[in-house]
Amino acid sequence: INSMEQGILVWGPDDTCAFFNERLHHVLELRDSDLAVGMDRKEFVRRCEGRGEQTSKSAEEITEATERGESFSFERYLRSGRTVAITARPLPQGGHVVTFTDVTETRKLVLELEEAKQAAEIAKTQSQSALTTEKRRQQQIHMLSRLGEWLQSCKSLDELYDVVTAH
Length: 167
Hints:
Structural class: alpha+beta
């Protein structure tokens, strides 16, 4: 379990920490003193709020979901700028298993992809506009070419007016 990419934390039925893997400290950027087996979940949440990683409102929502024995997911933004996806699943005997996954790079890639898609849409619109302009220009050149031919083939101004009116 310590070699997993995710940090794992198990809250027991009494809302105390029953287990966590070593990776959790790295993913959440915790010091050794920030979490220990037997620590109350409310104390852990209070410490997270103190670091600015969680609001009291989000902590309240999580507490309510926990008390109802529901699964829940949210993202936590660490002071370092990293983003951690947190997913909790209830255990049959009470408590929750919580996984913590660093999704910082994934979020950056998604943002870059969205920006690239927007740039591609802009480029597409610009190229379609340029193509439309070029088609109009080609039509005008074609019409001027025909007009030049008419001018050369007509013997009088009246004959030219008749040709232009007919076309």
